[in-house]
Structures are given as structure tokens and as C-alpha cells.
């Protein structure tokens, strides 16, 4: 990656065609600039990689022993504490502890692109970026600034990249589907999310291959992750259009909980009338009635692997990336008939 030249406020002013004072006012929410002018100046400053803080510019020249973490799915939700979703808490907590083991501290940072962001965010030694979407703008920003990073999950738009750790989502999907088949399911509906990330893509591809190998017709549905239980509930009429499926595999726990509730309201209960499993464990899957079979993505293990890879990179090493971590299927009553 090319070195990122220090950009001055004068450079931003020249690019924007305004005075230095106008740039200062736009970036510090001062003065009487029109909102459109303020927004345009900020966008130009961001695109140029401007850092207003002299300390941050100085720190960027040397390691400071701090790495950052950006939780992209929560950035997309614009909610950093979605009810029942403890995966990110488990990951971030384990990452912080793992960082200490490498002599590092961990700083959690909100969306680096939308801003405003503290200039110190660009002084960190490196970043963990969770679940990047295709051609993720945060990844692009880090690359433009020559800041090392590791992603949890591949960036689907960068197939040649090796600086990633991921759960083996294809294998986890096959394991869950095989479990449903072992308990009598042939017609299995799949409910994925809409984020364009490797988790959705790999699980969906594995499902389609599984159906093709068994000669069954895919019944594939998607719902935005941000809709949670509501999204699952709203899908049920479509899920039932072709008749009650033998089983439903929902990638998110919140969708699965909503599906279970809406199916029950229509007189269908798991596991008596259909089997239900999901691709990530959550509070909703553990406390549902019946409890829902789910994949434990083992975020603590993912965190250790991700931080270890980033620590090696920040030390100037060239470690092997593309590390896959096996998940674990937690079988519960929703997918076991006769229990």
C-alpha cells in the first residue's frame, strides 16, 4: 500500500475552494456556514484523509500499542446493543483480553467513514474489521491510509486478500442441514440476511449445493438483519405459500425467534409440524420455547485468532492468513421430534 501523505488544512481548503477558516468551522461545527457547504467540506476532508490533530499525525509515524475494532454489522444496524445479540459482546471481550496477551490495548471505534471520528482513530497500530461487506468503505479507507488490518470474515470484493479469519460458515451450514435431514427433513427452507458479506454468501451457497446434491428444490428467502424478530414474522406468509416446509434454517437467531412465534400463531409448532434451526446462537434461541437448535460460532476462538494475526502483521511479520475456525452445532428441542 502506498504511503499516505500528511494532508494539511490548507490542502483541504484549496480542494474545496474555500478559506482555511471555513474548513476549520466546518470540521468543528462552528460559524454560520450553510449546511450543504459544511457537508461538502467534511466529505472532501475525509476523502483526502485529513487529520486535524497534530498529535495524531505524529503518533501515526510509530507504534503506540493500541489496535482498534470496528463492528460493521452493528454500524449497519446503527445500534450497538441489539437485544439478545451477544455474539459481538463475546467477540469484543475476548479480543480485548487477547490483545493484552500480545502487549496491546483494544479501542472500539464506530464507523470510520460516516464520522465524526476522533483523529486518534487513525493513529492506531491496526484494526480488526468484523464482517465487512463487499468492497467495504472502511477497509478501503484503511488501505488508503496504509493502516494494517485483519477482517473477521472475507471481504467478498477482495478474493485475493489473505488477511482474514473466518468461521467455516459453509461447513456449519452443511452440518445443520444434515442434522435436519437426519431427523426427517427433505424440504428445507433457508432464511438469510441481506448484508453483502461472506457469512450470508457462504451459507447461501452451501445451502444451494446441499439442495442440488439431494435433488430438492431450494426455498430461499432473505430478510434485512436490522428487522430482527419482525423480519422473521413477516416472512412466514411467504414461507407457507408452498406449504409447510419440513424444516426452516434461519441464519440469524432473531429471525428464527420471529419465525417460531408467527408459525405458532398459525397453529404450527416445532418440532411437531416442522423442524427449526439457526446459524448463530443468541439469547432468543436459548430462551425460546422450545429452545432453538443453533450454531455456536465460537466468537472467543475467532477473537484469539484474529487478534493474533493482526499482532503478527503489526510487528512486521508475514503470517499465513485465511484462517478458518470450526463452529459447533448446539442441538435443542426445536429440531428433534419425539423429545
UniProtKB/TrEMBL annotation:
Would you say which domain of life the source belongs to? Bacteria
Q: Where is the HTH lacI-type domain?
A: 7-61
Q: What one GO molecular function would you report for this record?
A: transcription cis-regulatory region binding
Q: Which Gene3D superfamilies match?
A: 3.40.50.2300, lambda repressor-like DNA-binding domains
Keywords of the record, alphabetical order, are:
DNA-binding, Transcription, Transcription regulation
Query: Is Ligase there in the keyword field?
Result: no
Its recorded name reads LacI family transcriptional regulator
| Biological source species | Leucobacter chromiiresistens
Amino acid at each position: 500500500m502506498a504511503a499516505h501523505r500528511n494532508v494539511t488544512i490548507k490542502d483541504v481548503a484549496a480542494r474545496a475552494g474555500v478559506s482555511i477558516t471555513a474548513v476549520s468551522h466546518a470540521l468543528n461545527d462552528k460559524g454560520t456556514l450553510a449546511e450543504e457547504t459544511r457537508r461538502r467540506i467534511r466529505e472532501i476532508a475525509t476523502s483526502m484523509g485529513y487529520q486535524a490533530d497534530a498529535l495524531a499525525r505524529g503518533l501515526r509515524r510509530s507504534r503506540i500499542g493500541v489496535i482498534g475494532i470496528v463492528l460493521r454489522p452493528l454500524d449497519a444496524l446503527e445500534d450497538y446493543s441489539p437485544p439478545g445479540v451477544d455474539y459481538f459482546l463475546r467477540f469484543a471481550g475476548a479480543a480485548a483480553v487477547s490483545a493484552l496477551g500480545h502487549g496491546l490495548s483494544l479501542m472500539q471505534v464506530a464507523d470510520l467513514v460516516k464520522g465524526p471520528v476522533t483523529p486518534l482513530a487513525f493513529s492506531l497500530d491496526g484494526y480488526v474489521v468484523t464482517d465487512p461487506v463487499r468492497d467495504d468503505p472502511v477497509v478501503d479507507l484503511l488501505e488508503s491510509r496504509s493502516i494494517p488490518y485483519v477482517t473477521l470474515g472475507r471481504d467478498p470484493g477482495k478474493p485475493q486478500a489473505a488477511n482474514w479469519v473466518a468461521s467455516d460458515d459453509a461447513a456449519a451450514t452443511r452440518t445443520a442441514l444434515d442434522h435436519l435431514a437426519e431427523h426427517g427433513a427433505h424440504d428445507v427452507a433457508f432464511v438469510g440476511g441481506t448484508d453483502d458479506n461472506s457469512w450470508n454468501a457462504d451459507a447461501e451457497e452451501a445451502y444451494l449445493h446441499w439442495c442440488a446434491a439431494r435433488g430438492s428444490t431450494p426455498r430461499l428467502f432473505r430478510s434485512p438483519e436490522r428487522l430482527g424478530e419482525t423480519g422473521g414474522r413477516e416472512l412466514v406468509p411467504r414461507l407457507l405459500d408452498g406449504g409447510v416446509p419440513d424444516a426452516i434454517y434461519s441464519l440469524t437467531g432473531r429471525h428464527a425467534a420471529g419465525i417460531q412465534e408467527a408459525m405458532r400463531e398459525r397453529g404450527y409448532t416445532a418440532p411437531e409440524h416442522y423442524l427449526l434451526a439457526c446459524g448463530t446462537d443468541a439469547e432468543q434461541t436459548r430462551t425460546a420455547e422450545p429452545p432453538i437448535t443453533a450454531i455456536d460460532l465460537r466468537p472467543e476462538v475467532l477473537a484469539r485468532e484474529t487478534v493474533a494475526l493482526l499482532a503478527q502483521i503489526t510487528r512486521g511479520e508475514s503470517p499465513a492468513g485465511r484462517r478458518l475456525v470450526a463452529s459447533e452445532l448446539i442441538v435443542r428441542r426445536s429440531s428433534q421430534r419425539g423429545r
